[in-house]
Amino acid sequence: QQQPPPPQKALYLCSPFVEAALVKGNFKTIVMLPKYVDIMEWVAVNRFFDFYTNLNEFYGVLTEFCTQQNCPTMSAGATLNYTWINQDRKHVHLPAPTYIDYVMTWVQNMLDDDNVFPTKSGQDFPPSFPSTVKHIYRQLLRVFAHIYHAHYAQILHLRSEPHFNSPLRALPRLRQRV
Amino acid sequence: AGTSAKPSDYIYFDRSTDGFSEEILPRAKGAQMKLEHYYKVAVDAAIERNQRRVELERRLQGDHTISEERKQRQLQQLGKKESTFLRLRRTKLGLSDFRTVKVIGKGAFGEVRLVQKTDSGKVYAMKLLNKEAMLQKDQLAHVRAERDVLAESVSDWIVQLYYSFQDPIYLYLVMEFLPGGDLMTMLIKYDTFSEDVTRFYMAECVLAIEAVHQLGFIHRDIKPDNILIDKDGHVKLSDFGLSTGFHKQHDSNYYQRLLESANGQSTNGAQASRNSVMVNPINLTMTNEQIQTWKANRRKLAYSTVGTPDYIAPEIFQQKGYGKECDWWSLGAIAFECLVGYPPFCSESTHDTYQKIIQWQYHLAFPDDVHLSRQAEDLVRRLITSADRRLNVQEIKKHSFFYGVDWTTLRSIEAPFVPMLRSLTDTSYFPVNELEQVPEDAPAVAGDAAKDLAFLGYTFKRFSNILSCILE
Ligand SMILES: Nc1ncnc2c1ncn2[C@@H]1O[C@H](COP(=O)(O)OP(=O)(O)OP(=O)(O)O)[C@@H](O)[C@H]1O
Hints:
The complex is a heterodimer of chains A (178) and B (472).
Chain A (H helix, E strand, L loop, with lengths): L27 H4 L7 H24 L12 E3 L2 E2 L2 E2 L5 E2 L3 H17 L16 H29 L3 H9 L2 H4 L3
Antiparallel strand pairs in A: 1-2, 3-4
Chain B lengths: L23 H39 L5 H23 L7 E10 L2 E8 L5 E8 H6 L6 H10 L8 E6 L3 E6 L7 H8 L4 H20 L12 E3 L5 E3 L14 H15 L2 H6 L13 H16 L21 H16 L9 H9 L1 H4 L10 H10 L9 H6 L50 H6 L5 E2 L1 H9 L1
Antiparallel strand pairs in B: 1-2, 2-3, 3-5, 4-5, 4-8, 6-7
Helix pairs in contact in B: 1-2, 2-16, 6-10, 10-13
Bound molecules: adenosine-5'-triphosphate (ATP).
């Protein structure tokens, strides 16, 4: 049985899929820090809470494909495999679903932790917030990267590429890093 | 179309879900809808936020009486409010944020409770709607669209919705608590009103219904149970859209089926063939006893999912389509009840009521033993009439029954009955004894995807409420 030659470019960078998104026009409307608004509050909701919720929603759909067998490593490219740092501070390779589960649980716990993401009125963000946020960000983008790399065809079959692209579109600068 | 040049990297991808599991399609669909909804809300919120800022900036710019420093402070303050609002989006409200004081009402899909928000101590009415029951009754079509409007509307005539959230079993609506009870309870207590009192309530209802129409909605379910009384004795409509308007079966097909099945039941073969036109005689006149029975059952009818059809316009359950005129019919039926003591087409059975409404020409009758002014009877007759002849809002306001009503100040005059309240959580205007105690909170069971989907976009917090909390 003959396999078609792999496309030059990754599917997710090809037309028309790369343009597909849910918001017509400028994503800036919804991602730019509104004037006078506290940047921490904005980042917490717009960049984390929503981003995580939307990603979680989508990953939930893909769990049937993202299995120990299909995705034995947390890959995001032919030679790119992310490692998890375990309790002993050692880098370990994990199957993608395990890795992603760790990430999502870890982020969820942070979001639920009032000391990290305060929800009570008058409570301030901790000084460590910016660095925590960077950390979380990196991990969430890895999840995205894996999905783009390993499951984009399935997303296309499910006609979900506009939905899947949108959260990243909302973050144009970071998109290039993936 | 399709001939425009495609980029060089254009890919034709053959989409197919062969070999995908059965669950994945609805799940993907669900995720898609949630995301679409998310972006729609995000864009709307951004636009609104922007408007609030631009408005304030413009106002401050034009104001030369306050210092630059104060202007800056005001702008910073707006930013603070917006920031607080953002924080509230991350705050999950749930049942545990409210303490139940008492069950104060019962609707078709669950009960209404008087609750207090634990952190602020503020009092609200919380309505529970059972998702499963609503699904079974096909009551979802209206949920989203109507919720959107309700969420944006602020009118003195419509019960304010503050929060809504859901768990796998219920939808929860947290609304403003109206301590005066409802018009149904009042009618049960007083039997009839004088023409002056009726004029007051009907005039207020006219303005309330007009407010609903101005929002682009048809209530379709105006009845004494949905006319609530605030702390000053003035009227507000509940059950509009979200709260209840949507859950009653107003789909013409539904009525059609109902009528057919009701006819079918009483039509046994032989009789049907012999007398194919009208096999089902209607009880033409109600005896006093029957009216008393009707009254005794009134509350039970209000609690049932079928609800009472007594106030529904005929065009709604004929296949004709309907417009906002149908709400004015309901007003006519309520006016009749206020003056006479029972609604015009009340019958021993729901089915008879339907039949009477469809043939209203033969069944609208004013009893001899009740004296009505010419104006009152005329108003009722011009509302309970075919849709094309029914008075519109302007004509109603000019009708002689309402002579002397000042439509612009109505809400600020003293109401005929002002509730006497001993506390913020006084429930003496509600039939609390009749309502059973609050049942144990059902344990949360995992909902299935389809069910949750139907209630998408339900979780809602009201900006103005948040603002008012912050401002206090
Ligand atoms: N905001 C409120 N404040 C005070 N009481 C309320 C409020 N909302 C509802 N109630 C009480 O609960 C009763 C039932 O509420 P409602 O009519 O909204 O329920 P429902 O489910 O729509 O049922 P139905 O359509 O049969 O009236 C009302 O008649 C009223 O007595």
